[in-house]
Known about the structure:
The chain has helices at 2-6, 17-20, 39-48, 76-92, 118-132, 135-143, 148-155, 159-168, 172-183, and strands spanning 26-29, 55-57, 67-71, 99-106, 109-115. It is of the alpha+beta class. The strands form two sheets. Strands 1-3-2 form a three-stranded mixed sheet, covered by helices on one side. A two-stranded antiparallel sheet has the order 4-5. The model has no long low-confidence stretch (mean pLDDT 90).
Amino acid sequence: xxxRDFARLRRDAPLNxxxxxxxxxxxxxxxERIKGLSSQxxxxxxxxxxxxxxxxxxxxxxxxxxxxxxxxxxxxxxRTNATLMEExxxxxxxxxxxxxxxxxxxxxxxILARDYRKLDEEAAYGIGAAALVPFxxxxxxxxxxxxAADVARHFRVSRDLIEYRxxxxxxxxxxxxxQLEQSVPRA
Length: 187
Ligand SMILES: [Zn+2]
């Protein structure tokens, strides 16, 4: 709810993480605007390995303190919103990347990347999802008989994210019976 206040949103309004990114000092850069990216890297990131990454932030900040975030342009707006929201949450939650991992081993030398601890990943995703789809609005939509797909469209997120929120907020069984009621014709 604090993150939504930051973005000055109405109760049930969809949150646009791109509006929130600057408060987290994140600078979202379109991958097409990155100069000096080799054609092999581009092919890997946008082609054969595109399914393996959704986004990431540079661990080293720019001189003005902002950190660059690159999002996978192939993943569509719903998934991109969740990815950017997760990166924003890592910043607001003060997560420190801890593990230095070798992500590629080219002839010139190793490419290293830091990532977050698994628990931090879960927290950032979970809180990001809650900011995108707040409980009260989700509960209201469920009681109105809206489907997960309808709610997903309203909040500009994936249906998977709505179903995840329904489960972690214990609204799943209420949702299932509301949906059942919708499908039974009234006498
Ligand atoms: Zn993460």
